[in-house]
Specification:
It contains three helices and no strands. It is mainly alpha-helical. Helix 1 runs antiparallel to helix 2 and helix 2 packs antiparallel against helix 3. The termini are far apart. The mean pLDDT is 94.
């Protein structure tokens, strides 16, 4: 539990990034091009958050970067499929 409270501010910022991305997708549902831009910005923010988070906790490795990148690409693939259908 102590480890969770140490990371809590970081997780709040991650939640804010994802919530802002989700809200943007909902609010701009009438503009598919803008939704694509929001999805890309959210994915880039997610990867950036992961890099900063792990750098600050001194456990940033190439594998961690690849994991965040893979998850963001998977998320983008799903969102692009839903947005551009």
């Amino acid at each position: 539990m102590r480890d969770l409270t140490k990371h809590l501010p970081h997780y709040f910022s991650l939640f804010g990034i994802l919530l802002a991305g989700f809200a943007g997708l909902i609010l701009f549902s009438y503009n598919k091009n803008f939704q694509v831009g929001i999805a890309i910005a959210t994915a880039v923010s997610y990867v950036s958050w992961g890099i900063v988070h792990h750098y600050l906790h001194k456990d940033l490795h190439f594998e961690v970067f690849v994991e965040y990148l893979a998850m963001s690409i998977l998320g983008l693939t799903i969102l692009f499929t839903l947005i551009l259908r």
